[in-house]
Amino acid sequence: MPNTRVRVPDSAKAGDIIEIRAMIMHPMENGFRVDTQGTTIPVHIITDFVCSYDGAEAFRVTLEPGLSANPYFSFFIRATRSGTVDFLWRDQDGTITRASAPIVVT
Amino acid sequence: MRMRVFIRALALVAAAPTAIADGPISHHDAHAAAAVGGERRSGYFWLTPETQRLQDDEFANPGTLWVEAGKALWNLSVGASGKSCASCHDDAAQSMRTVATRYPAYSRAAAHVINLEQQVNRCRTLWQRASGFVYESKDLLALTAFISYQARGLPMNVAIDGPATQSYERGKTFFNARRGQLNLSCANCHEQHAGGHLRGEPITQGQVNGFPIYRLLWQTMGSTHRMFAWCNEAVRAEPFAAGSQPYVDLELFERWRGRGLPIETPAIRR
C-alpha cells in the first residue's frame, strides 16, 4: 500500500476554518513516457481523492494524467463538531488507500 | 523577487563570514565569480523562492514520503537473522546523527571507500543476512534518505586523508577531466561558470549536500549517482553504473568540495 501523509489540526473551535493537507506517494505515470528500451510506460494514476468529515463528503477531486507525482492537496473546511476526517484515494486498478485523523472541536 | 534573492545572498554572506580561501572554487570567470562570491553554496541558493518554500515545508516536501518509508524500513525485521536496523543501531536520531556527514568513507573490511548506499547493503547482507537492495530502488533511497535526514543541518565533513587519499585523488581527476561529445568537465560548468546561466537555467556549484534529492524533473527521489549519470549524459558521455567505484570516488570528492555545507536531505532540486 502506498504511504500517505495527512494533517488535520488536533483541535479547533466550532466555526473555525481549518486547513487540511493530504499527500500520497504515487508515480502518476501519464502514459506518454518511454523507458530506456523505447517501450511506452502504461498509464498508472490515482483517479479519485475524497475527504469526508464526520461521515459527510467534504472534498472530492477527479485526477487525470498530467498531474505531478505524489499528488498533494491542501484545502479548508469549517469545523463543526468532534469526529474523524477520513481520506480515500482510488487507484485506476480499483485499489483503495485510506487514512484518517481525529479532530476535537470545542 | 530579485531583491529577495539579493537580500538572501547578503544574509548568507553575513552568516558565513569565513569564506574558505583555499577552496576549490576557482575564479577563471570573473562574471561567475562575482555572482557566486567565491563561496560554497548549496543548490538551494539557486532555487526559485517557490521551490525553496516547498523544500522548507516539511509536510509539502515530497521527499518526506521517502524519509517516512525509510523509518518504517529501519524498524522492519528482515533476513535470516530476523534483525532490523534498529536491533543493532537502536534510535536512529542518535546512532545515525552524524553518519551522513562522514560518508563516503574508507571501509577497512571492504578495503576501499564505500558510500552510504553500499554501507546499508553491507549491513543487510553481512548482519541481517538478507539480500542487498538494488541501487536506486525505492527501498534503498528511502533508507538512505532516512539516515541522511538524521544529519539535517550538520556540516558535511568527509575524511580524505589516510586510506581515502587515492579515492579522493581519483574523484578529483574525474571532476576535472573533460568527457563526452561536448568535451566538458564537471569543473567547466560547476566551478568556472557556477552562478552563470545555461540559457534560462542557473548553473549551480553542483553541491551534493541535499542528496538523496527529490528532483522535480524526475518526479521522484534520486541518489548522487543518478545525478552524476544524468550530468554525464547531458554532456553526451557514457555514464558509469550507479554504485561503481568512479562514482563513489567522485562522490567523495564532491562531499569534500562542499565540506561545511549543511545536510539538507530531503532537498528539492529542479
Architecture overview:
The complex is a heterodimer of chains A (106) and B (270). Chain A is built from no helices and 8 strands. Chain A has strands at 4-7, 11-12, 17-24, 46-53, 56-62, 72-78, 83-91, 96-105. Chain A has a 5-stranded mixed beta sheet with strand order 2-8-7-4-5, with no helix packed on it. A 3-stranded antiparallel beta sheet of chain A has the order 1-3-6, with no helix packed on it. The model of chain A has no long low-confidence stretch (mean pLDDT 93). Chain B is mainly α and 270 residues long. Chain B contains 13 helices and 7 strands. Chain B has helices at residues 2-15, 30-36, 49-56, 63-74, 85-89, 92-95, 99-102, 116-127, 138-149, 165-176, 186-190, 224-234, 245-257, and strands at residues 105-107, 112-114, 197-198, 201-202, 213-215, 220-222, 267-269. In chain B, α4 crosses α9, α8 crosses α9 and α10 crosses α13. Chain B is globular. The model of chain B is unreliable at 1-35 (pLDDT under 50). The chains are: A mainly beta (106), B mainly alpha (270).
Largest sheet of chain B: 3 strands, mixed
Oligomer: heterodimer
Helix content of chain A: under 10%
Order of helices and strands of chain B: HHHHHHHEEHHHHEEEEHHE
Extract low-pLDDT stretches of chain A. none
Proportion of beta-strand residues of chain A: over 45%
In helices, the fraction of residues of chain B equals 40-55%
Query: Quick check: average pLDDT of chain A?
Result: 93
- Judging from the principal axes of the Cα atoms, what is the shape of chain B? globular
Tell me the radius of gyration of chain B: 18 Å
Order of helices and strands of chain A: EEEEEEEE
Average predicted confidence as pLDDT of chain B: 88
Strand adjacency order, main sheet of chain A: 2-8-7-4-5
Structural class of chain B: mainly alpha
Order of neighbouring strands in the sheet with most strands of chain B: 6-5-7
Low-confidence stretches of chain B: 1-35
Q: What fraction strand of chain B? A: 5-15%
Number of strands of chain B: 7
Overall number of strands of chain A: 8
Q: Major sheet of chain A: size, sense and barrel closure?
A: 5 strands, mixed
